[in-house]
TrEMBL record:
The keyword Transcription regulation does not apply. PANTHER family: XAA-PRO AMINOPEPTIDASE 3. This is Xaa-Pro aminopeptidase. Belongs to the peptidase M24B family. The keyword DNA damage does not apply. It catalyses: Release of any N-terminal amino acid, including proline, that is linked to proline, even from a dipeptide or tripeptide. Pfam families: AMP_N, Peptidase_M24. The lineage of its organism: Bacteria, Bacillati, Actinomycetota, Actinomycetes, Kitasatosporales. GO terms for biological process: proteolysis. GO terms for cellular component: cytosol. It comes from Streptomyces griseorubiginosus. Residues 1-29 are annotated as: Disordered.
Amino acid sequence: MTVAEELTPATPEDESEEPIKKRKNGLYPGVSDELAESMRTGWADTELHDLEPIAQAAETAARRAALSARFPGERLVIPAGNLKTRSNDTEYPFRASVEYAYLTGNQTEDGVLVLEPVSGGHKATLYLLPRSDRENGEFWLSGQGELWVGRRHSLTESEKLYGVPVSDVRELADALREATGPVRVVRGYDAGIEAALTDKVTAERDEELRVFLSEARLVKDEFEIGELQKAVDSTVRGFEDVVKVLDKAEATSERYIEGTFFLRARVEGNDVGYGTIAAAGPHACTLHWVRNDGAVRSGELLLLDAGVETHTYYTADVTRTLPINGRFSEIQKKIYDAVYDAQEAGIAAVKPGAKYRDFHDAAQRVLAERLVEWGLVEGPVERVLELGLQRRWTLHGTGHMLGMDVHDCAAARVESYVDGVLEAGMVLTVEPGLYFQADDLTVPEEYRGIGVRIEDDILVTTEGNRNLSSGLPRQSDEVEAWMAGLKG
């Protein structure tokens, strides 16, 4: 790095007084008038004139209309969020808030959507950073200037892309300070915007906005379902990639598996939707094992829980438990088949009109039956379920909503989510598991250190359900044949 390594960006408030701020250990003492003048001129006009609206423009407009109808007469403020420092002067990759991306399709930092009440509804305005300024040198002297981090869309271009009026976000905070009337803001993403509204909002009212936007995502539209299928299809290919290189993972570590899947996610999507769990051997018994620094050994199992996130932020969430050498041992197959049977029962319970809890209860019953059958817990099964005794080995719930967050709709009311009823268009995971910890003295030694989870992404349809991740085999014999074909 050179210039941006030596000069920090000026804030919008002090640009006119101090457009260039030197860094402590910069190599250049400053910028000469001649260089500054040179950098101002000689640049071609790069405005884009043939832009089409984003693919989900109709859907984001409908979502904003639903939001407007829910909160008539109130100003609604939904920020994208700001860059977060990773270390010193480097930032984490930016991911816009789900609420903001859901309503706009935009993904750039510092953006804010404002719905201002007008007669008959709301006027939506998208507030964004304009292109970095060439006149004051921002575009090459600022650490976030275009020569350092890439070109931004102009405000005019953004209007074409997102189908709403666009204004300069640097003017928004002052405008919000002067705003009158009821206001709600989605909290936790932009401290500057929240500070401008501090005397106009309440936590209770803001939470109502957050809850509404979470519940709005419970039922997916056709665009969202298509994106989730894309995410799953890429994830299937990522699992295939991993199977093909298991020999290399054995020579290195779980990190090879993580890296292999990440390559697919970055080539075909935006990123992974969450930290990949590449848990080999007893690590499979740690539910969120993301260190991925352990050994990969022939004869043990690999629990791979991973999902590709699309460029529009929709993520898959799929788990397969694979025999590293391609063949299940007798005890591994016994445990795996029990989890498979539980998942089958869970998936069969997913249908419109069913209680959300039904698929969890169905899967847990099968696992409890197996645990009693194997003599690991004293029956009858009804007693085991009533006391939750199976949870020593099943540990977690059997699924969750899926969408732009891997655990989507998390702020929804309990009565709308876990105590609610399934509807066509909902997408959820079904993921039972059995986990026998390596130090669990209540089970025979042969069980210890074996963890199995099978997870698929299930769309509720008008007729029942559709397994979006059916491209990956689930039955134990099919898994072995699939792995043999890929390795062969």
